[in-house]
Design brief:
By secondary structure, this protein is α/β, with parallel strands linked by helices. 24% of the residues lie in helices and 13% in strands. Helix 5 packs antiparallel against helix 6, helix 5 runs parallel beside helix 8 and helix 5 packs antiparallel against helix 11. The chain starts with 11 loop residues before the first helix and ends in a 6-residue tail after the last strand. Pfam families: Peptidase_S10 (PF00450).
Length: 528
């Protein structure tokens, strides 16, 4: 998720009053930063599990034996497959700076010589969320009393490595000292080589993936790997980002808040006077004219630098705060949720922190820490309670001084691999689909961030693989037609006498591919 980008407050009334202030809070984007959030849930006793019989695992060796996960508390033993987790140092000479990982090789099918890296966003949010609630084989998400298997897990196809990074995230240890994405990428590629050396891995294809603020991590890390010119350890074959931060996402979100609210107000339920208020802000800030001029296919030219957000133009913040008034269980990551608030095994079902009594935060339990070889003295939080960058500079005031990925590294990764995938969920209000698309239409491969942008009327400016932006617009894109039957609930439909109703879903989004970049919008999908 993006922290997802500000202090998370529980006192919504005070937040509403503060929404008119010049300081951009972006509450939905800094999970865990508020000092008043409760963090004292105690772990419960684990359900006894029997150890698996000794098996011959592909990546099990003398060096990896100490990372092997034999069982997980409250997880049925039948769910357990080859799995490893623990801390690996970034540099051999600095054992007190290390990143925490979970590694799960492919389940079923022939082995594959590839690694798919997954990173959650934040900055400072744990990739164990991705492991337990998104791409992993075990799924335990909002509202589930007990875990289930994920029939759509990525480990059905590939070897997946979930990494808690940068330093300061989750169980990863060390003092955060990064001031840029270049710093983070430098740390990561050192860790990744140490990981491969430990597991005896060489000549594996590498895919770098993530969501939300990882839209900044992924391109910089992939680009740093490509710069190594070492296919033994860094054979980058592609990258994937869901609901990513690749441009000036805060201002771009402001620019598309009104159209998003108009399209989804049957779910959000703003009143007429508030919609008029949003429309006035949108008009006075010039957002409508900007959209008309620059959301063009092909692009009309290089977009001028977007203004810094000011109180009168913080349309997204206004819409975010107002949504809580209408719906106390509002979920910025997935529109449509209503009360009661669902419990979350990781502690954050929305921007509010909640776990039901008897269901404490899973990865902060003592028995779970022991099972996954995590440091016992670290209090695990889904999103760090402190900054993971040193300082508070940069475009979003988070300490990240790097240029937006669209300005250099993302076009380089596209050109090097011709296999980059960017997707947005249509029901995500945290990173809006059209905000991401507007960034793609302004992807500019500057030789240096210090070189000024070309003239805004430069129609011949090239961004990636010889042209600028997408040449074809959404009205010409291909439908995503899901013809596969449901894999997860077939038996339940049959038992209920509704067999056959869960047949193929049909049109579930739009997709488009040009010059090495695929973009999709997925209907009925949110941020995570």
């Amino acid at each position: 998720m993006l922290v997802t980008i500000s202090t998370r407050a529980l006192a919504l009334g005070a937040v509403l009053l503060a929404s008119a202030l010049a300081n951009r809070l972006d509450v939905a984007r800094n999970k865990g930063f508020h000092p008043n959030l409760a963090r004292s849930l105690n772990g419960r006793a684990a359900t006894p599990t029997e150890k698996r019989a000794s098996q011959s695992y592909r990546y099990r060796n003398d060096n990896t034996e100490s990372f092997l996960v034999e069982s997980l508390p409250d997880i049925p033993q039948t769910f357990m497959t080859e799995m490893y987790s623990g801390l690996i140092p970034i540099h051999e000479d600095e054992p007190d700076r290390a990143l925490f990982f979970v590694f799960q090789p492919r389940i079923g099918g022939p082995p594959v010589d590839e690694i798919t890296i997954w990173m959650n966003g934040g900055p400072g949010c744990s990739s164990l969320e991705g492991f337990l609630q998104e791409t992993g084989y075990i799924r335990w998400t909002w509202g589930q009393y007990a875990p289930t298997k994920n029939d759509y897990s990525w480990v059905n196809l590939t070897n997946v490595l979930w990494v808690e990074q940068p330093v300061g995230t989750g169980f990863s240890i060390g003092k955060p000292n990064a001031t840029s994405e270049e710093d983070i990428a430098s740390d990561f590629i050192k860790f990744f080589k140490n990981f491969q050396t430990t597991f005896g891995i060489k000549n594996h294809k590498v895919y770098v993936t993530g969501e939300s603020y990882a839209g900044r991590y992924v391109p910089y890390i992939a680009d740093a790997m490509l710069d190594q010119n070492d296919t033994c350890y860094y054979d980058v074959q592609g990258a994937l980002m869901y609901d990513p931060c690749i441009g000036a996402y805060d201002v771009q979100n402001d620019m598309y808040t009104l159209p998003f609210a108009e399209a989804n107000n049957n779910v959000i339920n703003y009143n007429a006077s508030f919609m008029e208020h949003l429309a006035t802000m949108d008009e006075e800030c010039g957002f409508s004219d900007f959209r008309d001029q620059y959301m063009q296919f092909p692009p009309s030219g290089v977009q001028p630098p977007l203004m810094e957000s000011k109180a009168k133009c913080e349309v997204w913040n206004e819409a975010y705060y107002a949504a809580w008034t209408v719906n106390p269980c509002f979920n910025v990551y997935m529109l449509g949720f209503t009360c009661p608030l669902l419990s979350d095994p990781l502690g954050y079902p929305t921007d509010l922190q909640l776990s039901y009594p008897g269901l404490p935060v899973y990865f902060n339990r003592t028995d779970v820490k022991k099972a996954i070889h995590a440091p016992m003295d670290v209090e695990w939080l889904e999103c760090a309670p402190h900054p993971v960058f040193k300082g508070n500079g940069g475009p979003q005031g988070l300490g990240d001084l790097s240029a937006d990925p669209i300005q250099k590294v993302l076009p380089r990764v596209i050109e090097a691999t011709n296999r980059v995938f960017i997707s947005n969920g249509a029901l995500d209000m945290d990173v809006l689909t059209n905000s991401t698309l507007l960034a793609i239409q302004n992807m500019v491969n500057y030789p240096s961030p210090n070189i000024p942008a070309p003239p805004t009327d430069s129609l011949n400016f090239k961004t990636w693989n010889g042209m600028m932006g997408f040449q074809s617009g959404p009205n010409k894109w291909q439908d995503i037609d899901i013809t596969l039957p449901d894999l997860e609930y077939q038996d339940l439909f049959e038992q209920t006498g509704l067999g056959g109703l869960d047949r193929y879903q049909g049109i579930m989004g739009k997709q488009h591919y040009e010059r090495g970049l695929m973009f999709t919008e997925t209907y009925l999908s949110g941020h995570m």
